[in-house]
Amino acid sequence: MGKDNDMRGLSELEINEINAEIAHAPYRSSVAIEALKIVQKQRRWVSDDSLVAIAEHLEMSAEELEGIATFYNHIYRHPVGEKIILFCNSVSCWIRDSDGLEAHICSRLGVGPGETTPDDAYTFIPVPCLGACDRAPVMMVGDDLHQDLDQDKIDGILPALANESLVNRGDDQR
Ligand code: FES
Fold this sequence. Notes:
The protein is an alpha+beta fold. It is built from 8 helices and 4 strands; from the N terminus they run H-H-H-H-H-E-H-H-E-E-E-H.
């Protein structure tokens, strides 16, 4: 219904949250990253239409905002799953077999790097250092940091998350 329109422009909630950021900012475009995050929080990712709407609201060009969105790693410009798995593949994790663990995760989820599971539950994204090198290998699932990973730990994390996701999806569909 009104959802399609909602997906094109900015919702009232998004505009209010962005305006609250602008109220404390020296100029409108200085809240670009916060505005992208606000929209992403509502929609999981930032579509071209959303990006144009944000740029117009911040009185900046879409190209300039696109540059900021591209530079900032955690803004997603393609559809993503309900939870993002950020998997570190930098050197401290690589020394501790992050390559093998990455292959293990991909095989469990049935996806490749950068892909989303068919049930839309997870997007798997290899990333540079997550800042916990002394506890390598490391990944984040949503907001949760998981350290000292091995295959057993991953097997314990992924089924639990899969069940949680299935429960949530079942609730949504009723
Ligand atoms: S290298 Fe993996 S957390 Fe730093």
